[in-house]
Design brief:
The chain is mainly α and about 100 residues long. Helix content is about 65%, strand content about 10%. It is built from two helices and two strands; from the N terminus they run αββα. The chain has a two-stranded antiparallel ribbon. The longest helix is centred in the middle third of the chain and has 44 residues. It is elongated.
Length: about 100
């Protein structure tokens, strides 16, 4: 499995490297207010891919922190309930008498 993982990584690298070599011609990217960026197409695509990944991670941090906070709170509640409430007979659920 380890060799298969490395083989897949190598194939992805070769494909991306070939894509970058085929798109090495410089292009002009025009921004607002007359700004212009002249760079190879592969580099521009890589920069915008990285920016998209960073924005995606930043957007998911709020949900991750919320879930971590909820997990910590639930662990505290579980620890408190496990130490403070011993099992009593009235808490044990009796099965119905007419159950099969």
């Amino acid at each position: 499995m380890h060799y298969l993982s490395w083989f897949i990584k190598f194939v992805v690298f070769v494909v991306l490297f070939g894509f970058a070599m085929h798109n090495a011609a410089p292009i002009d990217l025009y921004f607002f207010l007359g700004y212009k960026w002249n760079a190879p197409l592969a580099m521009i695509l890589l920069v915008f891919f990285v920016l998209g990944a960073v924005f995606g991670l930043l957007a998911s941090f709020g949900q991750v922190f919320k879930l971590r906070r909820q997990l910590v709170q639930l662990r505290k509640e579980l620890k408190v309930s496990a130490t403070s409430k011993p099992a009593t007979e009235d808490m044990i659920i009796e099965p119905p008498k007419d159950a099969i």
